[in-house]
Fold this sequence. Notes:
Layout: E1 18-23, E2 28-33, E3 38-42, E4 48-52, E5 66-71, E6 77-82, E7 85-90, E8 95-98, E9 109-114, E10 120-124, E11 129-132, E12 143-145, E13 154-157, E14 163-166, E15 170-174, E16 177-181
Antiparallel strand pairs: 1-2, 2-3, 3-4, 5-6, 6-7, 7-8, 9-10, 10-11, 11-12, 13-14, 14-15, 15-16
Amino acid sequence: QRIQHDPSNPTSLSANEINCLYEDRQGNLWIGTERGGLNKIQISPSNWFQAYTHHDFDLAENSLTVYALLKLRNNKEIWAGTNHGIFVFDAEYNELKKQVLTGEENKQVRSLFEDSQGNIWIGFLSGHAALIRHNKRETFELEPLPKQPGSMRRIEESSQGEIWTSCNGMTKWVNGQFNQFYLHRLPESTPRTPVP
């Protein structure tokens, strides 16, 4: 089955270029698109679409791009990181709301991650990052983190609880700062030791 945008059908997918996907517990598929906003598709029993686009937030036409989706562990919210900041879908009230972020650099969100402690990490196009600590979530206070070179496209947590980011290489959050790691190609003549 092929699902795509149909200009003559307002209930079709809002754009064909897809940046991110998430399937919720109800089997709904959330789709972040390039310039088409956020789509929610109920796959079964029929393909039912609901789109959240620039029309819903008084933005310029075809200007809402979703780069990252995050389902919080509380199972009540889905966060969308966009070129206009963060939007939060509240499942209880079935509505999408825009959150206010301060600072021009904080509008271009590229990655979202919730760690094992319930803290939310946000990566920006500018290379900046921010943290929303678990005890501050209700007030949505951003705690700025040091800037990295390049766009912060991915944030993950290791099994040891270490936070890693991809941003013009890889960085690890250690003692309140990001430490940069560089990968170097070994010469072909370098002996290789098999991994057991």
